[in-house]
Every structure is written in C-alpha cells, then in structure tokens.
Amino acid sequence: MNSLSSRQNRAGSLLRILGEHLPPEVYRHLGPETTGKLLETFHKTGKPDSKEEREILSSFLGSLSKIQREENIDPESLNLIRELEALLKEEKEERDLLQDLKQKSAEEISRIVSGENSDMIALVLCFGDPDAAAAVLNDFPESRKEEILIQIHDLDLSSEYEKNRLERFLKFKLEALALEEKSLPTRNQKGKKAADLLGRLNPGDSQKIFDRIREKRPGFAENIIEHFFRMEDLLFLEREPLNRFFSSFHPIVLACALKGTETEIQLRILEKLEPALAASIRLESDSMGPISLAEMETAQNGILERLREEIEEGSIKFWRAT
C-alpha cells in the first residue's frame, strides 16, 4: 500500500512539473478515471524542491528510455525525451551557486542584493565572502543595517530550506542581471532584421508588406511578430500617449515587465512617466520578490501585444526614429 501511495505521489509531482508540456494523447490514453485520480494526487502533493525534481525527472526519463527501446515511439515523445535529457544535463553541469557566491566581490554582491528585502540581503551576506559582505553591509544606512543584522541573528545557516531558498534566488537574480548586460539572443536573426526594417517604414506601407509576407510565409510572419515590438520601442512614444497607455496596466505588471529590460531602458521609460505612476511602479518593483524570466516575458508580451493592437487601431501613433 505504501509503495502504491509513493508511486501516486510521484506521479502527482511529475504532473506538477510536466503537466502543461504533456501532449493530450497522454490523458486520452489514461482515460477519465485514472486522470481524475492523478489530478487528486496533484493537488495533494506540494511543489518538489530542486533535488526531488531532478530525481523525479531522472526516473521518468529512465522509464521513457526503456519504452523507446521496446517499441517505436512517436516524434512528440522523442522530443520530450530530448528536452528532458538536455534539462538533466544542464542540472548536472550547473555550477555551485553558493560556492560561487563566496568568490564574488563587494561590488558584485551589492548588485545582487540591490532592491531586495532585509531578510534576503542577510541570507546573501551570510554565504558571501566575509570581507566583501562586511563592505556591502557598511554601505547601508544605520537603520537598514540594524534590520539586516537582526535578520542575520535569526537565520539558521545549517537549514537546507534556507540554502535551497538562496540557490533559487541567486539563479533568478543572476539571470536578471545578465539580461541587463546584454539583450536576449534572438531565435531568428532574419525575423528580427525584417521586423526592424518594417518598423522604420510608413505604418501603412509596413502593414501592406507584412500582410503579403503573412500570406506567402506564415511561419516567417510569426517570427517577425515576435520581434516587431520591443520594450525599448516604448521610448518612441511621446510622453502623453505613453502615460495614457501605461495607465491601462496594473503597476505590478509594468514593474514585472521592466525588470526584464536593461537598466538604462528602465530609467528612460520611468523618466517619461508622470511622477505618481513612476513612483507606484518603483514601489511594486522594490517590494517584488524573485520572479522568473518566464514571468517577465509574459508581462512584456502582454504589454507589447496591447501596443500592437492600439497601433493597428490608430489610437497610438508610432514611428521608429531612423
């Protein structure tokens, strides 16, 4: 009975990790009754930590590999296996973030803790190089320094929970900082180039050309759409339409989207906003915990999709500067 329960919980955890990526054929094969039981275990199981997730994925990958040897497997499942193999390889090759933190300078640690709450700052400083951590702590105002020291006193540095929490935070923050240093690599340079050229044409001519591309090469058109508008394009809007456009979004959405842009772009956009709106976005950004790249991209895509719609409707006039 315990073995069966363990397998069900493992299945629920696997569904939590891979659910949205599983093809519909999986659920059709299981049938309504088994799928219902699986969903019950999904709701009973919590989110697995990084170690459990690796074990579950490794076990699942092993099972899929056996199936692959025993019978012909469909292309979609093969792609899933390859993705899992790449994921596991990436996990194995991932550097030790906590050990790497000990090698970072005071300047690097200062960038990591910038904008974070006292609890997270304390955790980072405890695992960083002592001299570098002391230099970072010394730069804070006295009142904030006291808050951080109290948090340090309350931390259990031997706790696996705290170490896992710090690892997740470092992975998120280092990825976010990397985005500030360079733009995300494009998946299709031709699509980006075409989008940039279309954006510099008269909007009417640009739309006609794009419609012809969409008719003849729908796949290429989709890639152009992906690159057509970028967050930095918002800087081409005049102050009044930009404020009106941003006012239609909740500040937390705007803060999330701006976290995924370069620091210079963030500052220039905020400078064009009304003080009250800019302040509300900064407040949300300062109080926001770690967010994933997927969350930042989702917020950006929502904003840029709305921008595209309003430009097409004519409610926003947009023309990239040459």
Describe, in plain words, how this protein is organized in 3D.
With 322 residues, the chain is mainly α. It folds into three domains: 2-93, no CATH class; 99-181, Annexin V, domain 1; 189-313, Annexin V, domain 1. It has helices at 2-18, 24-44, 50-70, 75-93, 97-101, 106-113, 118-127, 130-138, 142-154, 160-181, 189-199, 203-216, 218-228, 239-246, 251-259, 263-272, 275-287, 293-313. α3 (50-70) packs antiparallel against α4 and α7 crosses α9 (142-154). Residues 212-317 form the Flagellar motor switch protein FliG C-terminal domain. This is Endoflagellar motor switch protein. One of its GO terms (molecular function) is cytoskeletal motor activity. Residues 107-178 form the Flagellar motor switch protein FliG middle domain.
Features:
3 domains, cytoskeletal motor activity, 322 residues, single chain, Flg_Motor_Flig, mainly alpha, 18 helices, Annexin V, domain 1, globular
- Outline the low-pLDDT stretches: 1-8, 91-95, 182-187
Give me the strand/helix succession. HHHHHHHHHHHHHHHHHH
Computed Rg = 24 Å
Distance between the termini: 70 Å
CATH architectural arrangement of the largest domain = Orthogonal Bundle
What CATH calls the topology of the largest domain is: Annexin V, domain 1
**Number of H- or I-type helical stretches:** 18
What does the overall shape look like? globular
* Content of β-strand: under 5%
Structural class of the secondary structure composition? mainly alpha
Q: Please count the beta strands (DSSP E, at least 2 residues each).
A: 0
Helices and strands in order, then pairings?
Blueprint lengths: L1 H17 L5 H21 L5 H21 L4 H19 L3 H5 L4 H8 L4 H10 L2 H9 L3 H13 L5 H22 L7 H11 L3 H14 L1 H11 L10 H8 L4 H9 L3 H10 L2 H13 L5 H21 L9
